[in-house]
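User: I've been trying to design a sequence by hand for this structure and keep getting stuck. Would you show me what you'd pick, starting by listing the structure so we're on the same page?

Assistant: Good idea, let's start from the same input. This is the structure you sent:
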């Protein structure tokens, strides 16, 4: 297989993996597994799944000092909060719809980068961000029944938290590699949820193969595999092209939601979702650099 094709395939696998998170969240809730417990298992089990391959290939060095403190903070607070808010919102709106609403975050990253980091943005990027925002509105209003406004609000908050996390992480990524940062964010997030579930007495152990399949699946398929394949793709085709392919993550979620959960989207939602994806894709293409 040609190197570029291999890189694109790895990026697609990563997008598919991340796209399963909302599905596992819905399945866990239906099985009686509360979200903090699911996320505790997600990050706890994913930690060795990510660390072992990276250490074996000597692509990881532990962070120290200020960078370690920032990495822990980003994981324990930022990524942990985004993960919980996203799955909480998904349980109110559905997996496919939730994934499309969350994907407003690239537009929010553009806005934050321009205002907080004083990054230069083009008119095309602004237009693309506006298209994505309009698309979210169409998605939220194009349902056959009234969408839970709390769910939409929670998902928009999750997108805002995620955008803030990405912008803040850029400061650390000036001195450390993205794989190293991600490898520290995951165990930090696990500490948050393990501590919460133990302190509140809500931590439970799966009692059936089906429940174990959900917690192992969310750790492996929705976390470790997409992280490892994303960085592998970046090493082959570059971060920009990998990010463009990753734009199709919510498409996989919508498809899986229909197949696994029996969800459906109206024409209005499909049009809105297409606008979201078009806007995000334009943002990614605008920022793509030859590599």
């Amino acid at each position: 297989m040609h190197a570029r094709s291999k890189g694109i395939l790895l990026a697609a696998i990563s997008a598919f993996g991340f796209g399963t998170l909302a599905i596992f969240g819905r399945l866990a809730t239906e099985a009686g597994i509360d979200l903090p417990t699911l996320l505790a298992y997600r990050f706890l089990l994913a930690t060795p799944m990510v660390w072992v391959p990276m250490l074996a290939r000597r692509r990881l060095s532990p962070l120290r000092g200020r960078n370690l403190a920032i990495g822990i903070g980003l994981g324990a607070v930022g990524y942990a909060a985004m993960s919980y808010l996203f799955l909480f919102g998904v349980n109110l709106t559905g997996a496919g719809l939730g994934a499309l609403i969350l994907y407003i975050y690239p537009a929010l990253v553009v806005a934050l980068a321009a205002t907080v980091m004083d990054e230069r943005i083009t008119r095309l990027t602004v237009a693309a961000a506006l298209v994505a925002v309009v698309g979210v509105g169409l998605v939220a209003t194009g349902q056959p029944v009234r969408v839970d406004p709390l769910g939409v609000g929670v998902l928009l908050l999750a997108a805002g938290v995620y955008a803030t996390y990405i912008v803040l992480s850029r400061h650390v990524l000036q001195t450390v590699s993205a794989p190293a940062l991600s490898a520290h964010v995951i165990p930090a997030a696990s500490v948050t949820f393990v501590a919460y579930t133990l302190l509140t007495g809500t931590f439970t152990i799966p009692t059936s193969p089906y429940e174990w399949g959900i917690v192992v699946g969310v750790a492996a398929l929705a976390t470790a595999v997409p992280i490892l394949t994303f960085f592998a793709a970046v090493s082959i085709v570059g971060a920009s092209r990998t990010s463009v392919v990753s734009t199709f993550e919510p498409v996989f979620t919508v498809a899986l939601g229909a197949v696994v959960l029996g969800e459906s989207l109206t024409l209005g939602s499909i049009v809105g979702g297409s606008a979201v994806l078009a806007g995000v894709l334009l943002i990614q293409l605008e920022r793509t650099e030859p590599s």
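That's my pick for every position. To get oriented when you compare it with your attempt: The mean pLDDT is 86. Residues 15 and 249 are 5 Å apart (CA to CA).
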